[in-house]
Amino acid sequence: MKDIEIGPIRPPSESNSLLIRVTRGCHWNKCYFCGLYKSMRFSMRPIDETIEDIRRQAQLNQGKKITSCFLQDGDALVLKTDYLLRILEAINQSFPDMQYITSYARADSITRKSPAELKALRQAGLNHLYSGMETGSDQILKLINKGFDADTVVQSGCMAKDADMILSEFILLGIGGKELSEENAVQTAKALNIIQPDFIRVHATGIKPESKLGEFVRDGSFTLQSEEEIVVEQKLFLQQLHEMDSYYVNEHIINLLLEVRGNLRTEKQEMLSTIDRFLTLPPDERLLFAVGRRLNIFFRLDDLKKPKLHQKAEESLQQILSKNPHVDFAALCNYVRQSQI
């Protein structure tokens, strides 16, 4: 892919998608938990460059059936609608089999578009938005300097759905710390019950030490939750969600219980039962599973039943304790999580 510009990230579910970079960085870039674009100045790529990349991608993929495309970087929807329409036209011309064109979209970028603009983008092929609401709590949105409030979260989600777009909402478990854990669970579920997105994509928070939120941890105003406490928060969050036609998924490697996924209308109780399976384990087994997951020894709860994996996790746990008998496992697990994002 020589001379084709590719951005640093895409959603986990877009791992097989064509990547087209239309912006560099994030135009907001002030969230206290995120350090991804801090060293990068935001810019819109010249449209001729972007269209040339699309042409080159088509040449490289000649003979392949490309059906999905993700527009990078942090929020393509911030661009003017006319610009995006030109990009969408170029993609569809170069890739006639295209079925899904997707993008990150901040809530306030969605609400800056008129309903007519969103529908025009949908008709031109932009049919799936990934929106990082993070939380439905005004208190936590202010704490993390997200740049919009819960009303904007709800309005933007409803606008995307009204435009007949597929909507994925990202939420962060643990983003309020111990102090605001219940607030995060209840208020986030409240917002999502109104929006009813197609996908609720759950991520456990990994707080980077160099971030502003990392400063809050060091000064004691934000208390990290243990893996178990984050699971308790997830249980409350899931309990508060209505049984609606939304797919709930722990899709990222940083999540503890990857098997907690399913349609909220038909599989909510099954997901809650899986969470209870973890929470009713003996305390030493809960800790062993958490450490084993963070070390990529375990991937599912059932892995605890595999003698070789169980022994490997026990040995790893003992090595940690032998080096530091008073280790803070909440901090250790957060360190591993933040290193994976």
Task: Describe the protein's architecture and organization.
The protein has 341 residues and is of the alpha/beta class. Helix content is 45%, strand content 14%. It has 13 helices and 10 strands. It has an 8-stranded mixed β-sheet. A two-stranded antiparallel sheet has the order 2-3. β4 (68-72), α2 and β5 form a beta-alpha-beta unit. It is globular, with a radius of gyration of 21 Å. The mean pLDDT is 95.
Keywords:
globular; alpha/beta; 341 residues; single chain
Strand pairing plus helix content: what structural class? Answer: alpha/beta
Tell me the radius of gyration: 21 Å
SSE string, helices as H and strands as E: EEEHEHEHHEHHEHEHHEEHHHH
User: What is the general shape?
Assistant: globular
Mean pLDDT: 95
Q: Please give the largest β-sheet.
A: 8 strands, mixed
What's the tally of helices?
A: 13
In whole angstroms, the N-to-C terminal distance is 24 Å
Number of strands: 10
Helix content: 40-55%
Strand order, largest beta sheet: 1-4-5-6-7-8-9-10
Low-confidence stretches: none
Give the strand content: 5-15%
Write the layout of secondary structure elements.
Elements: E1 18-21, E2 23-24, E3 43-44, H1 47-60, E4 68-72, H2 81-94, E5 100-104, H3 107-112, H4 115-123, E6 126-134, H5 138-143, H6 150-162, E7 166-173, H7 181-195, E8 199-204, H8 212-219, H9 227-240, E9 247-250, E10 261-263, H10 264-279, H11 283-294, H12 307-323, H13 329-339
Parallel strand pairs: 1-4, 4-5, 5-6, 6-7, 7-8, 8-9
Antiparallel strand pairs: 2-3, 9-10
